[in-house]
Design a protein that fits this description.
The chain has 610 residues and is of the alpha/beta class. It is built from 16 helices and 22 strands. It folds into four domains: 175 residues, no CATH class; 54 residues, no CATH class; 240 residues, Rossmann fold (3-Layer(aba) Sandwich), CATH 3.40.50.410; 42 residues, no CATH class. Strands 11, 12, 13, 17, 18, 19, 20, 21 and 22 form a nine-stranded mixed sheet that branches. A three-stranded mixed sheet has the order 2-6-5, with helices on one face.
Length: 610
Amino acid sequence: MEEYVGSLWHRLITRSASQEYAQARVCLQDVGRSVATLFRALGGDRGLRIEASAPRDYLTWRSLLARIAGTGRQVSLAWRDDESLRLPESIALFPEPAQNRELYLWLAALASKQPNGFRHWGRDNQQHVVDLLQQCPGLRPRYQRLVSSYMGLRPDPGWLPEGDARLERAIQQALLDPGSVQTFPASNRAPWPVLLWLYPSTGVNAPVAMLDDDDTVDVPQSGGGEGHKRIRKQGAVVDDPNGRDGLLLFRLENLFSWSEYSSLDRTCDDSEDEDVGRVADDLDIISVSRKRQAGASRLKLDLDLPAAINDDLPLGDGILLPEWDFRRNSLREGYCLLQPMLDQRAEPMPLPGRLIPVVKQLRARFETLKPERQWLRRQPEGDEVDLDAWLDFQARRQQGDNRDAGLYRRFSHQNRDLCCLLLADLSMSTEAYINNDYQVIDVIRDSLLLFSEALSAVGDRFALYGFSSVKRHQVRFNLLKNFGETYDDRVRGRLQSLRPGYYTRMGAAIRQATKILMDQGESRRLLLLISDGKPNDIDHYEGRYGVEDTRMAIIEARQQGLLPFCITIDQEAEAYLPYLFGSDGFSVIHRPAQLPRELPLLYSRLTGGC
């Protein structure tokens, strides 16, 4: 009974202390597309992800009800850094949903004009507002409506201590007349959150293993799967608890909570744990420590690659390639070592019987694209005399007509002047199952087989390669079929022996594929990429760094006249592929099992005009 009454009291006092309008709440995921479109249309950095921010600790004046309820200690704020624009996961500030939606759009517009970092939070935000309203005067009525509604929600300076009151008056004046306030009085507490402005980032660029105090880390929300999103949590570095220090006198099993230590080594455990995500949702601060282990216990990190006797055959000493560093805004020459590989254990194999009916259908369709060989008659010059034209000429000559209409014929052998290189992502994520019977790697094998059968029917020259990586010194580039090879059972055997690899250093693989295509004589060169996720590796090649390097590699390919196109089964690809390949440079296959059939047909649509 006591617990029941306590829960009722908690709900009552929390609801009374809340200043939100729950019935008018708008979530970021509902307006995310509009927010992203406005942010980028106004010149915002196209490489930034737009994601939800977690509440952060905020020491400010709180009402008596908030202090009794224990609420108001944390606030969801808007901020940005090199990697992302973070907006509140939901907004229920105003009583009307339309106003809360307008606030999301205003924050996105303001972020498009804000460079990274603040010299002075108050003056800089005013200047950003002034610049935005000057460049986009159509936003002025929206801003005035938001400020007018927001002023009624700000605290009354008359009820605040003198120091806080002076600061509050300055902020209200800055909101009403941006640029008019240059001096903000000092106060012992932070001002009431200004939800129409942006805030400084919280130092999220540091790697998890090197976090400083009060940094933040990304954690997945519970549930995973479809609708999966990431939310930013505050992080703190602590010493690694080894379980042997200290004196434990007794153990109360029923007093365990989420805060107990969990030894989770993410360097070797990539599996998803729903409990971990649920626990992370309940924690305000996630403590991270660097695990101190003896050298022998870390050797497994250096033994990811198989022994040479069990590995593919290296072809040469490797190829040094550059990599784009967006922070330096320059290429790092010779930074990656790409190693061509050949599967020496693959044996010649025929086409699997289950694919033969599909292959017959594809061949029948693709043979219609094959150019016809024919004689061109009545030509002014050619390979031999056109007897029909010569007889017509003699007959007209006897009638006094001496015009020469062409007395020769020549053989026309039209070729589709194009070649294609298909680059397949063979990262370890292809081990995932798409149903009870098939893994992603099985779908990729079938796709490459059907693609090859279709192109061999039409006669187009093509090459097949796969790639994966283990840091920058081991970018594995698997040779499946080069342009000089004939598609036969040897190639079919290599395709059927494909295995998942390691990570996805996509930029280096695209640069090498570009070099190979540039050596071909065709006037039109198509670079197809099959992938199941974003570029990543276990070193710094993750997040925006990997995306920017991949984007630069694609830009380099286009500058050399190639046509890059990506086919992906990643259902979250629309969040980053438009930035990499452009709005019409990729295709998302929503049902992975359909990829083997869709890939040849997509190629037909891309090259049908050749």
